[in-house]
User: What shape does this take?
Amino acid sequence: MSLKDSIRARVKSWNGEGVIMILSLVLAVLIWVLTNLSKDYSGTISVPVVAQCNIDGHGMESTNTVVVSARCRTDGFRLLRERSRKERDVVVVPFDRADLRNTAPHTYCLIGSTINSYVNEFFGEGAQVEAFISDTLKFIFPAENHKRVPVEVHKSVVCRSQYMPSGPFRVTPDSVTVYGDDAHLEAVEKVVASRLLLSDVHESQHGVLRLSPIKGVRLSTEEVSFELPVSRFVELRTTVPIEVWNAPAGHEIQVYPPTAQVVMRCAFPLAKDPVAAFKLYVDWKDFNASLTGRCAARTLRLPAGVLEYRVEPEVFDCVELR
Assistant: This one.
């Protein structure tokens, strides 16, 4: 090999080693940067927030944007991204009404420790807040035209044999606030929930019903919960004498027939026999106000465990003896 060829080979070898050295150096720097950025650091993070809350008589969203700032502990990648951003997207945060304090007309504040409940909503799950820069966040919810209307539920409930409702059907809330302009609000008298169809019911029922939307208005809630207590029952039959109550001194009333057949539906199992405690009476005021002397028998209160009852006959003939 000539001297010239030997020199050329050595130069080529040096160039290859240099490239490898430079690539190794770059890779080392990159690993160092990634390793350090993956570690946690403390830094300030700021987020523009619009509040969302269901406040009676007010708009759903705040008209102002509040910048929430806190010193957070998070990885270096997050802090680097935060510092490189010129603008942040506004974060819409739904707040619990109980956490907002009304401090002025249309102004509601999140104060003190309640702010800590919304750390994830503000900064996401990757940040651990060490301290908030401000301990009070003020949001303005403008007033809106509104009215309160009842919730109506169309339902069909069919119970299994020997079962029946043991209490009233309840809807929570039983009324909602409707928002909109006066022209639309005037036409709204109620809000209808989705139809409830229940069959072969043999235990207490509960659940959620969607409210039907109304064009041109906004509802304070989109759904309501319902509850219907259901119990197994047994029927008890007994004969009860008809008493006369509130008759003035010197007046006596005779009731025909003097007894009634009573059928009681009682929750099973029975805690105690309700027959002895069941009483029927005719009120003197009803008799005195009657043109025919025919009166319906009443009961003052149902014994514990009695779900409903019926009386045979339903009306009694009353005659004043003196």
Notes: The chain has a mean pLDDT of 85. The chain has five helices and 24 strands.
